[in-house]
Design a protein that fits this description.
Chain A: Its main location: cytoplasm. The complex is a heterodimer. By secondary structure, chain A is an all-alpha fold. Chain A has 18 helices and 2 strands. Chain A is 59% helix and 1% strand. Chain A starts with a helix and ends with a helix.
């Protein structure tokens, strides 16, 4: 607890690094907003609940975007919440457009900006037609990278542009303070000559960036791993590699591995209970003709998928992992 | 001799005839019969009567027919001219000095008739004559019968000033002409010809009967001057309209059967003719119409006979009643079409403004900093002129409406329409109309509410009003309302009940999403909706919706901290309260109802109730309000932090310094007590000092 590094930092900086102040401010703000309601059952209880929910990752539900992106922990919680709530959509096998994913995001965060979703979609679709359909897992992993490391990615984009245009990569690049406008790409002729930039050079710049940066960035070792196989890469190729890299995903700790993405035994049980309850609620509807897909498009009946997977086979490391993160 | 179709009813012709002839028109005219009579007379004169006059008559008929011809008429062809010359025996001439029959004589030309200048009746029926010639000398002629010949042109009649009856039926005449001198003409028969136009008869002021049946007439006019005409036969032509008939002061019988008349307007002049008493229209398109009989009767009160049937009083009465009904219906439909036109124009106007607004919003939205709401909407509400078809009312609206009528309030920028069970609103201005005093009956009948060209966010604000004023509205329709997010459907949850929802793809991008219907079913599951966009909702759909979004609901309810639940639900209730307070017709009962409703809501669907929709404006408003608080919190926390860090620093400093301080304390104390005596003295001193 009383580790030397911790004591080495001046107080304010320590607090800032752990984002304690953000949560304190937010707690007090919430208290002020809901004074009448909270005063009924006591301030101490309020603070308890608040910090409990911060721990559990439910504090970001239906909050404004500025709060959701305020701390890395918030971002991770948001990603996790999104996964948990809409995993069923992915499980059903629907391919959705970027706009629809954005809609789902907005269900959880009403003023989530469209830009971020668009950037995430570009990663998946490799900057091609942005109206294509995407699968849930593709989108989710790309979105994770884009959302969690958004500042980092802005800097990387700047570096990439410079490398492409042949500038000196070692000059300090600071992204503009606005929400990362993607700079104009060089004319197609130039870029077409040599696809992307050299991987090793690129990695060097990234390493410098990671050292300098106060934003969170992916562990350099893992980034090196991601770049090890290729000679040259494009910006979106790099991002795609990041999003598919298991190590980075685990380092983040928000989402399970790709293979396990659709599994969440506890939630499935709960869901079954809900479905059964809703069935009972509508006994009068049982007389209607059972036609699948009355809405005119094919739905794959994944009845079998919702059968209870034996809990032994599905590890639930995340709950444990969650608690160990302090 | 004279084809017996004509009966002179008035004895007028008889009066004018000086020659003593009584023109008796017989219904049957068998040439044989007349010939028989002829023969009979002759027979009596020439031969002794026998005991069997009938048989002998017959026998004689056969014997004498041909010989009679030979005796009677000698057609001697002369070498001088190409025309045959007619000669009759003098006996004949004396007996029948005024009549001559040359029917069925296979004549191809008119023969020259000499020495018969007193002739009055001339019969050329059933021949092959192509031109009227060689009769100029017969200036006493009264009746000329050229029925069934091949005459192509009326000519050669200029000297026949006494002519009263001219029969030119069944010829090939193409044009009425050369009748200028026939001023005494009484009967003119031109049926079965190829006449296309009525002309050159305006001088025939004594003409009583004009037969133009079976010609090629397409219209009737140019009838002025026929001051004596009583009968006009125009059957079997192609007549489409009739004019000038009101210029015929004596016309009584008009036969227009089998023509092409389709409306009464085309024969409107008939209404002005006071003399007409008998008319036929059968075989015309007009006779097939449902309104035919009573329209004719109503417009021609003077009529006694229609299509050869007498008109009874009963029929006349019926006709006037029906005609009145027709008039009213026409007026009604005219009014309706006017209203419809107005409606259409208004809707077009609203649509145009909507498009403008959308473009403006699109332009502004690209610049993220500015707010898009206010600046875009101003121009739409300016329009000064108000064409209100509705009188300004303070009382219930029902006084002006009955079930069949459409209630219409037309202002240039919006349109509100009530049509039986549907309330249609076009344009955002129409939303204000929900504030009106709707009568309980009208409001109770409304089951469908349709919104067009209105921003959904604006509709959200009036949903509470809708809930109160139109409690039976079960079907909502949205078209061109800018539904873009699934979230927006959350707003519909506050209504009492929805059975059917129709979201028109036009102007509502949300329909392009794959999951929208399932989300609607999920969020509005407590309504048990039956139809979405026309398709029925099956249980499978409901289950699928639950499967897809059930976890969202679970998370939204069970995982939110208690205070958040309360605050979110409280927010929603507060909003609804605000609208209630703003509405005019506030009744105390409503507030209780509201509480019950929300309680019920919370009870049934706790897990969904937190999924709300705040319109963008409200949301930004709220965030603005929070900014102040946030600033305060920040400074407050900073102060706290400062305090805490100070205390912490002091604490740390104390920690560091404490060992040293402790040692010093101990050392000082030991030093003090080292000398027992002096220490005792010091203590006593301190005690006395204290006193």
């Amino acid at each position: 607890m009383l580790s030397p590094e911790r004591l080495a930092l001046p107080d304010y900086e320590y607090l800032a690094q752990r984002h304690v102040l953000t949560y304190m401010e937010d707690a007090v703000c919430q208290l002020l907003e809901n004074r009448e309601d909270i005063s009924q059952y006591g301030i101490a209880r309020f603070f308890t609940e608040y910090f409990n929910s911060v721990c559990q990752g439910t504090h970001i539900l239906f909050r404004e975007f500025s709060f959701v992106q305020a701390t890395p922990h918030n971002r991770v919680s948001f990603l996790r919440a999104f996964w948990r709530c809409f995993r069923t959509v992915g499980k059903n096998g629907d391919l959705l457009t970027m706009k629809e994913y954005h809609c789902l995001l907005q269900l959880l965060c009403p003023d989530f900006p469209l830009e971020l979703t668009q950037k995430a979609a570009r990663i998946v679709l490799m900057d091609d037609a942005v109206d294509c359909l995407m699968s849930f897992s593709d989108f989710l992993f790309a979105f994770q990278i884009q959302f969690y490391y958004s500042e980092f990615l802005d800097s990387v984009a700047a570096i990439y542009e410079d490398l492409l245009s042949g500038k000196n990569p070692n000059t300090v690049i600071v992204p503009t303070s606005s929400s990362g406008q993607h700079r104009q790409r060089p004319a197609l002729g130039e870029a077409g000559m040599l696809e992307g930039v050299e991987a090793s050079l690129f990695y060097q710049c990234l390493e410098n960036l990671c050292d300098r940066h106060k934003y969170s960035c992916p562990p350099p070792a893992l980034v090196k791993e991601a770049l090890s196989n290729v000679q040259r890469l494009t910006f979106y190729g790099f991002l795609m590699a990041l999003s598919k890299h298991h190590g980075i995903n685990q380092a983040l700790g928000a989402l399970p591995d790709k293979g396990d993405l659709m599994h969440d035994a506890a939630m499935d049980e709960e869901l079954e209970r809900l479905v059964v309850r809703s069935k009972l609620h509508r006994t009068s509807w049982q007389h209607r003709a059972k036609e699948p897909g009355a809405f005119g498009f094919q739905r794959r009946e994944k009845q079998e998928a919702l059968e209870r997977v034996s809990s032994a086979s599905v590890p639930t490391p995340y709950h444990y992992r969650w608690e160990s993160r302090e | 001799m004279i084809p017996g179709k004509y009966r002179s009813v008035s004895g007028r012709a008889a009066n004018n005839v000086n020659c003593g002839l009584h023109l008796v028109i017989q219904t049957s005219s068998l040439p044989e019969k007349s010939k028989v009579r002829f023969k009979k007379v002759e027979f009596k004169l020439n031969k002794d009567t026998s005991s069997f006059p009938g048989r002998l008559l017959q026998h004689d008929l056969e014997r004498n027919y041909s010989s009679r011809q030979g005796d009677h008429i000698n057609l001697v062809s002369s070498s001088l001219s190409s025309f045959p010359i007619l000669q009759r025996s003098s006996e004949e001439k004396i007996l029948y000095s005024d009549r001559l029959s040359l029917e069925r004589q296979k004549l191809t030309v008119c023969p020259i008739i000499n020495g018969e200048d007193h002739l009055r009746l001339l019969n050329f029926q059933h021949n092959f004559i192509t031109r009227i010639q060689n009769i100029s000398n017969l200036q006493k002629l009264i009746s000329l019968d050229l029925y069934d010949n091949q005459i192509e042109e009326i000519s050669g009649l200029s000297t026949l000033r006494c002519l009263r009856v001219l029969l030119l039926g069944k010829n090939r005449i193409k044009k009425i002409s050369n009748l200028e001198n026939l001023k005494s003409l009484d009967v003119l028969d031109l049926h079965g010809n190829q006449i296309t136009k009525i002309e050159n008869i305006n001088h025939l002021c004594e003409l009583r009967v004009l037969n133009l049946a079976r010609n090629f007439l397409s219209h009737v006019d140019n009838l002025n001057g026929l001051d004596s005409l009583t009968e006009l036969n125009l059957r079997h032509n192609q007549i489409t309209f009739v004019r000038d008939v009101d210029n015929l002061p004596c016309l009584q019988h008009l036969f227009l059967s089998f023509n092409n008349i389709s409306s009464f307007d085309s024969v409107s002049c008939l209404a002005d003719s006071s003399s007409l008493s008998d008319i036929t229209f059968d075989g015309n398109p007009i006779a097939q119409e449902s309104w035919y009989k009573h329209t004719v009767l109503q417009n021609m009160m003077q009529l006694r006979q229609l299509d050869m049937k007498r008109i009874t009083e009963e029929e006349r009465r019926m006709a006037s009643v029906l005609a009145k009904k027709e008039e009213e219906k026409k007026r009604e439909s005219h009014k309706q079409s006017l209203l419809k036109e107005k409606k259409r124009l208004t809707i077009n106007n609203v649509a145009r403004q909507w498009d403008l607004q959308q473009q403006r919003v699109a332009n502004i939205a690209t610049d993220e900093d500015r707010k898009d709401s206010d600046s875009a909407q101003d121009p739409c509400q300016i329009d000064g002129s108000t064409l209100s078809a509705f009188p300004e009312e303070t009382g219930p609206l029902d006084s002006g409406l009955n079930n069949a009528l459409q209630g219409l309030s037309v202002v240039d920028t919006y349109l509100v329409e009530v049509d039986g069970d549907t309330l249609s609103l076009y344009g955002s201005g129409a939303l204000e109309s929900l504030d009106r005093n709707w009568s309980v009956q009208t409001a109770g009948m409304i089951t469908t509410v349709s919104f067009t060209f209105i921003e959904f966010d604006e509709i959200v604000h009036v949903l509470p009003k809708l809930k109160i004023k139109f409690p039976n509205s079960l079907h909502l329709k949205f078209k061109e309302t800018n539904l873009v997010m699934l979230q927006q459907f959350n707003a519909l949850a506050q209504l009492r009940r929805i059975d059917q929802l129709t979201i028109d793809p036009q102007g509502n991008p949300v329909v392009n999403f794959t999951l929208w219907k399932y989300y609607v079913l999920f969020r509005l599951s407590h309504f048990s909706m039956q139809k979405i966009n026309g398709t029925e909702v099956t249980q499978n759909d409901m289950i699928m919706a639950e499967r897809l979004f059930g976890i969202l609901a679970h998370v939204a309810s069970s995982e939110l901290p208690q205070y958040r639940l309360i605050s979110i639900l409280g927010d929603a209730r507060k909003k609804q309260f605000r609208y209630l307070l703003e509405s005019k017709g506030k009744k105390p009962g409503i507030i209780n109802e509201e509480n019950n409703d929300s309680k019920r809501l919370v009870g049934e669907n706790t897990n969904r109730a937190t999924l709300n929709y705040t319109t963008k404006d409200f949301y930004n408003e709220k965030l603005e309000e929070i900014k102040e608080k946030k600033k305060f919190c920040k400074t407050y926390i900073e102060d706290l932090v400062k305090e805490a860090t100070e205390i912490n620093m002091k604490n740390e400093a104390l920690q560091k310094l404490w060992p040293q301080m402790f040692i010093e304390l101990v050392r000082d104390a030991v030093i003090e007590i080292r000398n027992k005596n002096s220490y005792m003295k010091l203590c006593l001193q301190q005690i006395t000092d204290q006193k």
